[in-house]
Specification:
The complex is a heterodimer of chains A (363) and B (322). Chain A is of the alpha/beta class. Chain A has 11 helices and 13 strands. Chain A has one domain (11-126, 206-348): P-loop containing nucleotide triphosphate hydrolases (Rossmann fold, 3-Layer(aba) Sandwich), CATH 3.40.50. Chain B has one domain: P-loop containing nucleotide triphosphate hydrolases (Rossmann fold), CATH 3.40.50.300. An 8-stranded mixed sheet of chain B has the order 6-7-8-3-9-10-12-11, with helices on both faces. A 4-stranded antiparallel sheet of chain B has the order 2-1-4-5.
Chain lengths: 363, 322
């Protein structure tokens, strides 16, 4: 597998831990997450509310509000370049002991390898994010072309007039007539606002686009238009994409690979075919079974019983054990390790070991 | 054949706005038989929620009538309507904002019982509350908790318990699962189906989620800009959609499977303004099959096969001419 000539992946996250420390309790949002997106690929990050999807996206951009957010561990590499690195050995010990003392509240278990200035330069140019709600992510008192031009001016030395011209080109790319650039966000419909947000994100043609539920607030027909457009733009610019969503339908539509996230951990990862047709993890299976079947109306839905685990408690074993029909004693005691079915397809579940995984294991 | 419970005739609801009248619901007629579910789908702004509210007279209709079990409730006095509300209830969309944050679970469920003086004394009320909580699957220990302590699924269960408190016959469910995660959504959908069977409830199920509506409804009504464009039994609508809008809508569902994918029909443009719409087919601007006839008059709902109604000049046969 090791090949030096290979282009580095667009994004690599290793062993990421993020917590939010409140006065009375700590919420463990991301717990040892691993993720990799090859160049030009689209990865779907699927999970329910509170699974840590958005936090992961924000961590890549260095946008986790601190306090209360703390990245306690983890490495993040963007296009082969280190962004965030875990503190090791002596340094970790030294800074670790200072934890909780007032002066050192912001000391991380991980440290950014780039300065805040560089980080700002990267946002928009190397990596940008589309936020979930187009209604609130635009400034209501600035015209849309100015909002797009702002990003362009920030990252390249061109005149304001040129930037506005470029902004209008961007509007055209996302399917909005260029003369509407001088209008304000409230004059646009939801679908068009989301296109403006996409135009802002793509204005400096970033290598990696993080799309956080970009179509959740939209109607299905508009969603179809927006997804279609994103697909085309992605192919045109060879952009890699992290698609954060809770909708498996959207994943099937636009992604190459899927990672299923539960309680801040990836429980299953594979290509579309791996995950959709050779589902391994009971949680992934539960997600599929919860969806109404469009082929047969009479099948009763099989919801996953119970609720998401409390994120302020650290679990010794598998966080899904309490909701899992196949759980045994070991699931509650030991965290499951990752087992490979193929090079790409990985599952973290005690049901599987190297011997039974080829047959599809116990499910 | 069971009895018709709801009979809505030529219902209209216009809102006055600065620029003219918003035709939120424009001449909608339908019937629902007892114990059945009518699904109402459409994009945001098509008037589906207004339709639900107008049917229950939470909004006064501009024109038209609503017959509930044969009685014309649109002419009822306030007093009589208050009595009638016992048998017609609503489950609201957002379980996060539709509950009073200062009322405990039991107080929220008790409210309708007190208002309608159902149980005369405390003990019987408490018994009824516990009964209702059990029906909707809320544990007894939650009796004195506040909504903010609960997740969306449990909060929606409170909303359902409140709606059931007065033993209604008819419930309007306005997007009851759209704020919930899929695994929780499935739990609530199953609960609603079980309750329907057990209590012989009649639902009007309003949603924008097509796979949900297909799963739960016996009949589906597709709305576009205040009007019904197509109405058919669920299986028929999904296997044989006739109206171009229905076709586009169905093809836009993201299917969570890699096999038998639908061919996409991407619609151009977006929903037009519902303010004083011109007398033409309202979908004509986005329709790829639109002809001059579509722009010269409004099509009428026509039966193309038994139980299957379509409002379209091109595909609804020749009877559509207004």
């Amino acid at each position: 597998m090791e090949n030096i000539d290979r282009t580095p992946p667009a994004l690599e996250i290793e062993d990421l831990f993020v917590e939010f420390r409140g006065r009375n309790s700590t919420v463990y949002a991301v717990n040892g997450l691993n993720l990799k997106i090859e160049k030009g690929q689209t990865l779907g990050l699927v999970g329910e509310t509170g699974a840590g999807k958005t936090t992961t996206g924000l961590a890549v951009l260095g946008l986790i509000a601190s306090p209360p957010g703390v990245v306690t561990q983890g490495n993040i590499r963007l296009g082969g370049r280190d962004i965030l690195k875990s503190l090791e050995g002596e340094e970790r010990e030294r800074l670790g002991t200072l934890w909780g003392k007032k002066k050192y509240r912001h000391v991380y278990g991980s440290r950014f390898c780039v300065s805040e200035g560089e980080l700002q330069k990267m946002r928009g140019e190397k990596v940008s994010m589309i936020f979930q709600d187009p209604m609130t992510s635009l400034n209501p008192v600035i015209t849309v072309e100015k909002q797009i031009a702002e990003v362009i001016e920030k990252h390249s030395k061109i005149s304001h007039a040129d930037a506005i011209g470029k902004a209008r080109d961007m509007l055209e790319t996302v399917g909005i007539p260029r003369n509407r650039g001088s209008e304000y966000p409230h004059q646009f419909s939801g679908g068009m606002k989301q296109r403006v947000v996409i135009a802002i994100a793509l204005a400096c043609s970033p290598d990696l686009l993080i799309a956080d539920e970009p179509t959740t607030a939209l109607d299905v027909t508009i969603q179809a238009q927006v997804l279609d457009m994103m697909k085309k733009l992605k192919e045109k610019n060879h952009t890699s994409m992290l698609m954060i969503t809770h909708d498996l339908g959207i994943v099937a539509e636009i992604c190459d690979c899927v990672s299923v996230i539960y309680a801040g951990r990836i429980v299953e990862h594979g290509t579309l075919e791996d995950v959709f047709d050779h589902t391994l993890h009971p949680y992934t299976k539960g997600l599929f079974d919860s969806l109404p079947d469009l082929e047969n109306r009479d099948t009763r839905l099989k919801p996953i019983r119970g609720l998401m685990p409390d994120p302020s408690i650290r679990y010794e074993g598998c966080p899904f054990a309490d909701r899992c029909d196949y759980a045994s004693d070991i699931c509650r005691k030991e965290p499951p390790r990752e087992v490979h079915r193929t090079d790409e397809h990985v599952v973290a579940c005690h049901l599987y070991n190297e011997d039974n995984i080829a047959e599809g294991g116990a499910l | 054949m069971s009895q018709t419970l709801m009979d809505v005739r030529h219902l209209k609801k216009y809102f006055k706005s600065g620029k003219g009248f918003v035709h939120a619901v424009d001449d909608v007629s339908f019937t629902i038989e007892e114990g059945r579910t009518l699904g109402v789908v459409g994009e945001s702004g098509c008037g589906k929620s207004t339709l639900g509210r107008t049917v229950l007279r939470l909004e006064e209709a501009t024109d038209g009538s609503v017959l509930f079990a044969g009685e014309d409730i649109s002419r009822f006095s306030r007093q009589k309507m208050w009595e009638m509300r016992r048998s017609m209830q609503m489950i609201f969309q957002d379980p996060f904002s539709s509950l009073n944050p200062r009322m405990t679970v039991s107080e929220a469920i008790e409210d309708p019982l007190v208002l309608y003086k159902i149980c005369p004394d405390r003990a019987s009320r408490q018994k009824r509350i516990e009964e209702l909580m059990e029906t909707v699957g809320l544990a007894k220990r939650l009796y004195n908790t506040y909504p903010h302590e609960l997740d969306g699924g449990r909060r929606q269960r409170i909303g359902i318990a409140r709606a059931l408190a007065l033993n209604p016959k008819f419930i309007v469910c306005d997007e009851p699962v759209s704020a919930l995660d899929v695994s929780i959504q499935a739990q609530i959908l199953n609960l609603l189906q079980d309750l329907q069977k057990e209590l012989n409830l009649t639902y009007m199920f309003i949603t924008h989620d097509l796979s949900v509506v297909y799963h739960i409804s016996d009949e589906i009504m597709v709305m576009y800009l205040g009007q019904v464009v197509e109405k058919a039994p669920s299986e028929v609508l999904f296997s044989n959609p006739v109206h171009p809008y229905t076709k586009a809508l169905l093809s836009a569902i993201p299917v969570p499977s890699l096999h038998n994918r639908r061919q996409r029909v991407i619609m151009k443009g977006e929903i037009t303004s519902p303010i004083d719409p011109p007398a033409e087919c309202r979908f004509a601007k986005r329709c790829e099959f639109a002809t001059d006839r579509c722009r010269s008059g409004e099509p009428r709902l026509t039966e193309v096969e038994p139980g299957h109604f379509v409002s379209c000049f091109e595909f609804g046969g020749d009877f559509g001419t207004a």
